[in-house]
Automatic annotation (TrEMBL), chains A, B:
It comes from Halobacterium litoreum. It is an enzyme of class 2 (transferase). Keywords: Aminotransferase, Pyridoxal phosphate, Transferase. Homodimer. GO terms for molecular function: transaminase activity. InterPro entries: Aminotransferase_I/II_large, AspAT/PAT-like, NHTrfase_class1_PyrdxlP-BS, PyrdxlP-dep_Trfase, PyrdxlP-dep_Trfase_major. Its EC number is 2.6.1.-. CDD domains: AAT_like (cd00609). Coiled coil: none annotated. Its cofactor is pyridoxal 5'-phosphate. The keyword Mitochondrion does not apply. This is Aminotransferase.
Length: 366, 366
């Protein structure tokens, strides 16, 4: 199966084996720490055993589904707890492609690299829509790309890698375009807690059988390794998605579900606000240094990535390696995210050394 | 998507809401408790945090893969840690069906109910081979069913639901038949620690690019809710299976992987032996009572189920409900496992009250 993700691993591998001190801005692994209730929840669960160590309901622990349903103001029957956002998108895209309502998945370029690979695995084909320079996605461009061949329109807001946040008007239009084309809008909202603009609008705001929302706790609770995510869909989609979930994974891992349930109950809004403020500061620090380095960039409205282009220094894999060796900063080549930004680099702001990295880049390009 | 598993849930639901005291012999959830090292491992992991809470390698924690590889005497690169045996079978069957080498999956009747559903989900078709009355599977019957349309031959040993254990000669033949037909033998060996016959032979004994072995720790460590399993395959299959794993789940849940790693290292052979001996005793107790009840049954050579047929009492869903209400014993109707045993009932020996259940059945049919 063709799949582009290994580029991430090649770069991480290279950075890990490089000489000298490297600031790692490759992965999307939060460095700011989980709320204490995650570990507490795991300890509590570890003390149970017996029946509590056996299969949870396939669609997720009832109390966790109830907690999610209450927060998202949907019925609990619409919630499926998944093995992270990855499985949530797999279930949603699988549902869109199994309806015999087209085999194309409309997605942006630049694109989160799992989306094209999942599309191929599920028997679909990709149709790319280019975003504006600031990462925004014009609904009219999506409307033009959509047709009776469209099974799925796949958006990610706040966006990895561009940092764009699609506002309420755009989201309403994406839902409408899905309805017009008998397609499913899959809205991947895993960075919803990292909106700096105040403009984020969940697709859940628009009641429609043509939209499925995916999310996870990987980023919001800084637990990418736990693999707890969820889908929200109307019953006509949720039922077959539950079957696919059962036939693929039986259920998601229960210790992680128990820890997330406890963390959701015991973590107050300060934790989320502080993580977001920390990232906002890192964005300011980093983009200021990019100015000093004469780089072109977009200030992200959300998520935790910055894409940048340095003068006469296209973001190839070779140049990525050169920055690791010569500047001591590891980013991701833009080619990892489709063709539209293949001369850019993506930097993940998941290190306390953002300022150090920024200084190094400014020095290197001075 | 069509799928037969809900029958399990209907029976469990019925038993849970029935009046009076019911002995639950429906599920496959071990009741004998996990080794203490499982909880210890979870506690240890909970005390880490930070980077340890982030993505493990997609194919599984390196030390866990090394531990599995050492135990199974294969190269670590052949091991993929999965979200339980369910995902392991999904990956293996997906690989067999994506090779453009046929679209049929040969499987037994009676059959573990997930297999037909997974086959349909993955775009394949089922071809059933009937087993003998004792659950044994004649390789010549498999050879006759196999053809150039065969993508996969799927066996489960020790077997759920029949309790059959396929010996070395049969397993050698299954591998050979896969080779003869350019197919993949998928050998699901999740009950390998529960062989009472001494005749169990893993497909790993036969070195061939045409066999993939799946397994899990759900039963052997009594942690069906943790979802930690694995596949072992030659590189030509392991690589695309790793891609499918990444595109479906990104990785398996890390807390559960860490707990299993610790448990494998710290649990001695006594734990496994004692669980097996406990089950062997339960088999004796239960089958003795079946004799008293005038039932036909097969004494299982492995796993932890007994299939039985009572005189003038076919194992329909209605009769299953009647046994719950009138005898206070909940089993599974044979129709849940294909057509060959649809007048039988399956009883899971996962309750300390096997003797009580046996007495109740003997009384009821006296």
């Amino acid at each position: 199966m063709e799949y582009e993700e290994p580029l991430f691993f090649r770069v991480m591998e290279y950075a890990a084996h490089a000489d000298g001190d490297i600031v790692d801005m490759v992965s999307g692994n939060p460095d700011w720490g989980s709320p204490p209730a995650v570990a507490e929840g795991l300890h509590e669960y570890a003390d149970t055993g017996g029946r509590e160590f056996q299969y949870p309901p396939s669609e997720g622990l009832r109390e966790l589904r109830e907690e999610i349903a209450a927060r998202r103001q949907v019925d609990e029957s619409q919630v499926i707890v998944t093995n992270g956002g990855g499985e949530a998108n797999y279930l949603a895209m699988g549902r869109a492609l199994e309806r015999n309502a087209g085999d194309e998945v409309v997605m942006t370029d630049p694109v989160y690299p799992y989306y094209p690979g999942k599309t191929t695995m599920l028997g679909g084909t990709q149709r790319f829509v280019e975003t504006a320079a600031d990462g925004s996605l014009d609904p009219e461009d999506v409307r033009e790309a959509a047709s009776e061949d469209t099974a799925c329109i796949l958006v990610n807001t706040p966006n990895n890698p561009t940092g764009a946040v699609y506002g309420e008007d755009a989201m309403r239009e994406f839902v409408a375009i899905a309805e017009e084309n008998d397609a499913i809008l899959v809205s991947d909202e895993v960075y919803d807690h990292f909106d700096f603009s105040g403009e984020f609008a969940s697709a859940l705001q628009f009641d429609s059988p043509n939209r499925i929302v995916t999310n996870s706790f990987s980023k919001s609770l800084a637990i990418t390794g736990f693999r707890v995510g969820y889908c929200i869909a109307d019953e006509e989609h949720a039922d077959p998605m539950k079957s696919r979930h059962m036939l693929t994974n039986v259920a998601s891992s229960r210790p992680a579900q128990a820890a997330v349930l406890h963390a959701l109950r015991e973590t107050d809004a300060d934790y989320y606000r502080e993580s977001r403020e920390l990232l906002r500061e890192r964005v300011e620090t980093f983009t200021a240094a990019l100015d000093d380095a004469g780089a072109e960039y977009t200030t992200p409205d959300g998520a935790f990535y910055v894409m940048a282009r340095f003068p006469d220094f296209p973001g190839t894999l070779e140049n990525t390696y050169e920055l690791i060796d010569e500047a001591g900063v590891a980013g991701m080549p833009g080619a990892g995210f489709g063709s539209a930004r293949d001369d850019w680099l993506r930097f993940a702001l998941v290190t306390p050394r953002v300022e150090e990295a920024a200084d190094r880049l400014a020095d290197y390009f001075a």
